[in-house]
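Researcher: Good morning. I'm working through a list of sequences from a screen, and I'd like to move beyond sequence-only analysis. For each chain I'm collecting a predicted structure so we can compare shapes side by side. This is the next one on the list. No need for commentary yet; just the structure.
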Amino acid sequence: MTPTDRDRVPHRLLITLCTVGATLMQALDQTIANVALPYMQGSLSATYDEITWVLTSYITAAAIMTAPVGWLAARFGRKYLFISCLVGFTVTSMLCGAAQSLTQMVVFRLLQGMFGAALVPLSQATMMDIYPIEQRGQAMAIWGVGVMVGPILGPTLGGYLTELYNWRYVFYINLPFGILATIGLIFFMPRSFQNFNMKFDWIGFSVLAVGIGGLQMMLDRGQDQDWFTSREIITEAILGALGVYLFVVHLLTARRPFIPPAIFRDRNFSAGLAMMFASGTILVSSSSLMAPWLQELANYPVETAGVVMAPRGIGTMAAMMIAGRLSSRLDPRKIMGFGILLLSWSIWDMTFWTPDVSTSRIALTITLQGAGLGFIFIPLQVLAFATLAPQFRTDGASLFSLCRNIGAAIGVSVTSAMLARNTQALHAEIGAQVNPFNRALQGHEAVHHLWDPATHHGAALLDQVINQQAQIVAYIDDYKMMIFTTLPSLLLLFLMRRPRRALGQSAETHAAME
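Model: Good morning. Structure tokens for this chain:
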């Protein structure tokens, strides 16, 4: 599509609404089923370990099928692939809601993940095609609302639907949006070129599927299986490492791999992938730590905890809109640098939190945290794709989604594992200091009687206090680790160059570099 054609795209607003709707559907389904798991467990007569496959099957299938989206779009046409995946996602959502057994639910979630994998990269590539380069920042801001806010709103919406109606409505809610988005794309999305002569790289896809599947399974089930003390986790780790290694070798030696190696020659894009991976580790892990902190340490009710976490999404949306307007006027690297510093400061402030911290301080900090993510996400999309050749956009969008999802999986797994292990270690360390020789505990009769370990009640209270203190310090350790993950991202900005479009140049040509 030429720049002139892009400026004249009819029904651009309707196409935007449909693509954003498809993105929001897929992003919501990553987290919306989490709160409904206990209800599904009883309805489907499943154990806790079995019911987690409802999440694992969807995440793993989506991760594996994200990589070949670029090839599928080139082979069958982006419009026809988009519509097919949207119809498949809507139908499998209804099947998930109607599932009568655990086996049916896992199979339908697997299919739902396969169809849903393409929705985010296809919608991103479509938005970049229908908007000229000077409006791409605002377009990515609108599109980014679905990607960034969907996982944040998912648990809250899922909780309300489950409480007011039934857990099945967590999946049924996709029906009206899926129908409207499908109809809109059928009538208004421009036709796309199909290349039926392309051959699929089965070897590359197979080894990548083994690598991503093994890594994803290891990360999802590692905490429950006690990590590398389990044969299952060791097997998954070996398969994941072997699959990734073989894929890299195949990518460098094969004639026509399904992911074109030329895409990585673009320095902005390659640095952008690393930045997206780092941002992904913070995007979900920060909110996954926040929910139990509010409920278990600060003793907020579930409903109140959801309300307290809402400002994070508000901060993200506001920052996205601001960044979308500024990206065409200011150097996107400066906006991203500001976002990284703002995100790091918000996490640093959380290292001082105790259960006595005020609600207003919590709201302010997580609002700024959400704003930091918004200031990173939008300029990153603009900068990474500005110098990328148009034929690589769908592949690039797929790789961005893959890096974000893998980063999120690693972030959640590592922070959860560190929290559990540090809590146990600190519990033992603090408990060892509770003895008759500790002067801090001497001379306080009230404390001695209240926490008397010789009585059942006193031992329980003492253990509760020690566990609370251990958890507080363990959360602080997690937040410190997140800072050391975020701040090094500033170095990636020096690898990127701001694209400058000369007056009269085509928007499709590579821009000059500063």
